[in-house]
Structures are given as C-alpha cells and as structure tokens.
UniProtKB/TrEMBL annotation:
Signal peptide: 1-21
Protein name as annotated: DNA-(apurinic or apyrimidinic site) lyase
InterPro entries reported in the protein's UniProt record: DNA_glycosylase, HhH-GPD_domain, HhH_base_excis_C, OGG_N, Oxidative_DNA_repair_enzyme
Annotated keywords: DNA damage, DNA repair, Glycosidase, Hydrolase, Lyase, Multifunctional enzyme, Nucleus, Signal
Record organism: Lentinula detonsa
UniProt family annotation: Belongs to the type-1 OGG1 family.
HhH-GPD domain mapped to chain residues: 146-334
GO BP annotations listed: base-excision repair, AP site formation; nucleotide-excision repair
A GO molecular-function annotation: class I DNA-(apurinic or apyrimidinic site) endonuclease activity
Compartments in which it is found: Nucleus
SUPFAM superfamilies: DNA-glycosylase, TATA-box binding protein-like
Length: 411
C-alpha cells in the first residue's frame, strides 16, 4: 500500500480480479454513487470515476486504475490525528477485503468456467472482473424485496430514498468534479427504523407500491422475533446479527428462514443467499435467466414468450447451471446475467484499450500472484497488544474499533 497525494491509498489489484465499473452497476448493490472524473489527456491510465458508499460510521470512496484500487475513508470527525487516519484506512481495507471477497481468485474461476463452457469462453474477456459482493444481509434482503417486478434504475431510487427517509445524515462531501456542490450521505436504516405504523403509507407515497407493505411487515417480523435492543449508533441490532448467522447453516435451512418473510419468494431468497450469505452455488432464476438457458444451454421453452416459472422448472434450471459451472455457479451466472443486460450492450466495446494483464494461464504463476496479494491484505494476528509505532494493518487487527468492524462484517 502506498499513500497518494490526493489522500487515497492504493491496493494493488489487477482489473481482471475486480472491475468496479461492472460490479457496482450490474444490479447487486444499489447505494453506490458514481461520479465522473476530469480525465488527464496525458495519462490514459488515470481513473475515470469515483465511487462512494455510506456505511454506518463512514463514507468509503473508491477509484480504479488498471493495476490498483484506490480507497479513501471519510468520517464525521473532520480532523483526525495521524493514528486515527491510519486506523480508519486499515479498517476500511478490512471491509474492502470482505465486501469484494478478495480472497477468491477470480481469474482462476474465469479460466475454469471458460474451460467448461463455450458460451462463457466467448464473453469472459469483454466482461472480466465481475465478482460477487458479500453484502450486509439486512440491506441485501430489503433491496431485493424492492426488486420485485422492477429494474435496476428504479430499485436504486427506492433504496436510496429509503435511506434518506429513515436514516439520519452521516456527513456531506463535495463532489469530486471540483464544482463545489456537496452531496449528503445516509447509512442504510436498521430494521427498527422501519417498524413504525406509518412506514408503509410513507413508502407508498415515495413510489414503493405494494413493496411498501412487504418492507414494513418484514422489518416488524424480524425485530419482533429477534430483537431491537438499543445499540451504539454504529453497531448492528440483534435482528441484523441473527441474519448473519444464516451464513453458518445449510443452504436449505437458510432459504427456509428467508422464505418466512413477507415479500420473499424463491428468487429473492436465492439472491440473498448468494449475495450476502456465502452460498456460492445458488443461482437466482427468473424469466431473464430462463431465456439465457433456452438460448445458450439447450433448455426447453420459447424465447418469444414468458413461461410460468414453476418450482419444478426452477429446480431444473438451477441443477443445469450447477452442472455447467460447479461450486461457484452463482458467481458465473452473475457474469452471464450482466452480459445480457441492455445497459451493458456497449460494455468493453467503446472503452479505450489499455495494457491490462491477461488472465494467467500458468497456475503456479497465478498462485504466486494471489499469494502476494494476500500478503498485502491484512490478516489478524492473535496477539492483542500494539505499540504506538505499529503499522496501519497492525492497528486495524488489534485495537478494539477494528475488532468491532471485523466482527460486524464477518460472523
């Protein structure tokens, strides 16, 4: 990691392992805000966008080059001292490692999928760097209740409206274009904030339609069953903590728990299982995915009309995709799904060609590269003490604030 004059730190990571432009726009998460940056005509490798995301206690700002993820942490305290800045950036690095699941070698998965599937082989270079996020299960659950009969643009508007309406502002930041305009950032509201009797009516007035009642009743059921005891502002409620425990049980049992909530059918449950509960082989199926299966994978049906998605057909589609792609079938499905979105029709075609590294074919070389990457990322030691001269990684792994963040993001 190296400090940059702009206040960003650099995490070495080739774009074939993570493409922010694709991953943050393909319908996984809906609260990232993208800001175009002024391009340097003399530097074709300079970042084109800045991406911002509001956590409970900070705003994370990201930029990307062909070889690095650039990150910056902003919290309400306007003037942290040097040790506080080191700690904050180290905590953010822990979160980035978890959120983007950087312990998974995506180039290796692409190579495996391409060797098993000619369809994937045909798109993998153009749609490289698409990996599955490891999201907060509560936000993920509500976001995909909003996704019912909806599109990415409208889901994004709903999720952001929900945050502005039911979560107090954390801080305001100038936009990175130098215009002097400030944007205000709100964390995602906790379950207890959506249990009040007037929530459903208010959400309907904001354009949520029938989903308003689903959100209200799901939040209420979650809190009534698993608690909403008073927590520090930057801590999770017991009901949120309970949702994360679903990572530790079987896919079938976790799905059964999710299906108890109002507005959660098989597809929404499977989205949550895949995108926040570590069930990598789960493939969320809808008519769009069914059309892909008919067009490319020999499944029966018509590409001209919608077929009734029966439980039997759903299971047949899931089984087919797992047979094709294996243990990480859900991840591979996300790449195919993204490649078929209209908003990605020109992705990789009109962008300037840059000297990006190709997927590593030599497995020993790839293994060494990923080992070097893991060395860069923080791995918590068992020792509890830390000196004043400790590095940022050591601070993040030992002091209590980082332990709190670590406990929050990975059960």
């Amino acid at each position: 990691m190296t400090s940059l004059s702009t206040g960003f730190r650099a995490l070495p990571l080739p774009i074939i392992q993570l493409s922010l432009a694709a991953v943050l726009k393909c319908g996984q998460s809906f609260r990232w805000t993208a800001y175009p940056l002024k391009l340097d005509p003399e530097d074709a490798s300079s970042p084109t966008h800045e991406y911002r995301f509001c956590l409970r206690d900070r705003v994370v700002c990201l930029r990307q080059t062909a070889t690095n993820i650039l990150y910056r942490t902003v919290q309400p305290d306007p003037q942290p001292n040097a040790n506080q800045r080191e700690l904050r950036d180290a905590e953010t690095l822990l979160w980035l490692k978890d959120y983007f699941q950087l312990d998974v070698d995506l180039a290796f998965l692409y190579e495996e999928w391409g060797s098993r599937d000619k369809v994937f082989l045909g798109i993998q270079d153009r749609f490289s760097g698409i990996r599955m996020l490891r999201q907060d299960p509560w936000e993920n659950l509500i976001s995909f209740i909003c996704s019912s009969n909806n599109n990415i643009s409208r889901i994004t508007k709903m999720v952001q409206s929900l945050s502005k309406e039911y979560s107090p502002p954390l801080l305001s930041l100038p936009t990175p274009d130098g215009s002097g305009v400030e944007d205000t950032y709100h964390p995602f509201p906790p379950p207890s904030a959506l249990t009040h009797p007037d929530v459903s009516a208010r959400l309907r007035s904001l354009g949520f339609g029938y989903r308003a009642e689903f959100i209200h009743r799901t939040a209420k059921m979650l809190v009534e069953t698993h608690g909403d005891s008073i927590q520090p502002q930057d801590s999770d409620e017991p009901s949120e903590q309970w949702l994360r425990t679903l990572r530790d049980i079987s896919t079938e049992d976790a799905r059964a728990e999710l299906l108890k909530f109002v507005g959660v059918g098989r597809k929404v449950a499977d989205c949550v299982l895949l995108m926040s509960l570590d069930k990598t082989d789960v493939v969320p199926v809808d008519t769009h995915v069914h059309q892909i299966a008919i067009k490319h994978y020999g499944m029966k049906g018509s590409t001209k009309g919608k077929m009734n998605m029966t439980p039997k057909l759903y299971e047949e589609l899931c089984t087919k995709f797992v047979q094709v792609w294996g243990q990480y079938a859900g991840w591979a499905h996300s790449v195919l799904f993204t490649s078929d979105l209209k908003s990605f029709a020109l992705h990789g075609l009109l962008e300037p060609t840059s000297p990006l590294p190709s997927p590593v074919k030599n497995r020993k070389k790839r293994s060494r590269e990923m080992t070097d990457l893991v060395r860069i990322l923080p791995t918590p030691p068992s020792t509890p003490s830390v000196s004043e001269s400790a590095t940022a990684t050591e601070i993040a792994c030992n002091l209590s604030p980082a332990e709190r963040v670590k406990k929050r993001i990975r059960k």
